[in-house]
Amino acid sequence: MKNIDIVANILVCDYNELTETQKKLVDCAKDACKRAYAPYSQFNVGAAALLDNGEVVSGSNQENAAYPSGTCAERTTLFYAGAKYPDNAVTKLAIAAYKGGEYTTAPTAPCGACRQVILETEHRYNTPIEILLYGKDKIYIINSIESLLPLCFGKTDLE
Ligand code: THU
């Protein structure tokens, strides 16, 4: 028997330590929170994806009275990016959340289903996605979803 240690590398930083491109993407995710439809949770999430053609696509959570029919901000964004720009890789994804009249203090991490969709997007374009999780106090930067989804199941497992 032996143990396997899985290490997730997360860079913790302040907004003013970001590059201009990263700041713009985080700002876009924060802005997208304003367009969330979240009457049930009152938890407004925004996401913004930078594509390899320079386009930025953003989205927000869209809830439904039949709860499971709603969709998270990350999936809204990535499915929209895939539908509008099917030939372009996503290179960065920023996520922010707003509740009770302010942005969250701590970074908001993607749910399990969204992690799986981010993984699919990485594999689809064979390009790691830099993930920026915004919080008022600190920002987390993760270089690939594989750090947030260890022992992942992806398309190569079906081969
Ligand atoms: N939500 C997101 O949009 N993204 C996440 O990463 C976490 C949760 C949404 C789903 C639901 O509309 C609300 O936040 C509360 O769970």
Question: What topology does this entry show?
Answer:
Elements: E1 11-13, H1 20-33, E2 44-51, E3 56-60, H2 73-84, E4 90-99, E5 102-103, H3 112-125, E6 130-134, E7 139-142
Parallel strand pairs: 4-6
Antiparallel strand pairs: 1-7, 2-3, 2-4, 4-5, 6-7
Helix pairs in contact: 2-3
Bound molecules: tetrahydrodeoxyuridine (THU).
Give structural notes.
- There is one protein chain.
- This protein is an alpha+beta fold and 159 residues long.
- The protein has a single domain, classed as Cytidine Deaminase, domain 2 (3-Layer(aba) Sandwich).
- It has helices at residues 20-33, 73-84, 112-125; strands at 11-13, 44-51, 56-60, 90-99, 102-103, 130-134, 139-142.
- Helix 2 (73-84) packs parallel to helix 3.
- The mean pLDDT is 97.
- The structure holds tetrahydrodeoxyuridine.
- Tetrahydrodeoxyuridine binds at residues 38, 41, 43, 45, 61, 63, 70, 72-74, 108, 110-111, 114.
- Residues 38, 41, 43, 45, 61, 63, 70, 72-74, 108, 110-111, 114 line the site of tetrahydrodeoxyuridine.
